[in-house]
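[Automated response] Your request has been received and processed.

Submitted sequence:
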Amino acid sequence: MTSALIRNLSVATGYLSLLCGIGAVALERPWPSTGADLPAFLEANRTAVLWQALLFLLGGAFFMWFLGSLRTFMIRSEPNRGQVTMVAFTAGMVGYGMTMLALAPQLALTLPDRGWIGATTAAMAVDLGYVLLTVANAPIAVMYAAVAVVSLRDRVFPRWLGWLSAAAAGGCAVLVFSLIDPTGPVAPQGWLSYLSYLLPVVWLAATPTVMLLLERRRATRPGIRITVTG
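Generated structure:
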């Protein structure tokens, strides 16, 4: 009973990561388009910017814990010693590690003793964080693609979740191209970027739910390997 509870709580960290992300998005403020306006923006919105970064950091930490549960869940049903599962786990850790690192410039700009930072330096720090955050979508896309493979090939998850994983991988890949055209549809405020961000949100809401349901089914039928046919 205790081990099952711990296992379920570990899976539930996916929900906690999602909730932290939603809370961080709720604190989003429109950043100024010019570096000259950044010092005034940071002074007026310091609390919101700080808590947004902290919530994203906490959400990333929860997701890393969830990745451990995802790896354990996937490797039980994948052949070849979990090769693709390891790809998913490693790519997810790298991607979310980069995401958390990308928040460092934003946090640095909110420190109380950083009011002396000039507009040019502040703009460079914001751009550095944006680039790191955007590049992080590449390994995260690999993570989703690996989950799609073990879902569609090995039936670790239902087929619909496999296709959702593939769509999330495509969405993250699209976000990488915002570095090429920061004013087009894949830009942070572009219509395609909103869709690309929405797909991982749906995935993170669905995947822990499916894992918990399948674990409950497995617990009621000990010794029987469950193959997902949906």
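Summary generated for your ticket: The mean pLDDT is 85. The longest helix spans residues 46-75.
If you did not submit this request, please reply to this message.
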